Amino acid sequence: MIFDIRDRTRKFAVRIIKLVKNLPNDTSGREIGRQLLRAGTSIGANLEEADGASTRKDFFHKVSIAYKEARESEYWLALILESKLFNNPRNVKEAESLRKEAIELSKILFSITDGKNNKKINMSPKATPCS
Hints:
Layout: H1 5-21, H2 27-51, H3 56-82, H4 89-113
């Protein structure tokens, strides 16, 4: 099985978009939704930019931004859950699942940017694992 972080972050973004549509149409729902939508969809966008980076430094910079956005997404999802913005159990379950995915994505992205990796990682779908 080939692991494609770009595909995973794109699916995450689509799920975020769908979840945000179900937030209450009040001040808190709109504002938190706007923040979550921005953070959750920018993870994959920054990885796309990283994959096209012209230097190793630029690559790691873009991946580090994606890492920060994943952490921010987890924060907004936690806030949604803790403030009980959803009454529908299906939306609560999806928010919990997305929060877990945001944590997983953060761990993956941190492992790329932790300073131990000193070469660009090929993130294309047909990439083989780096040694």
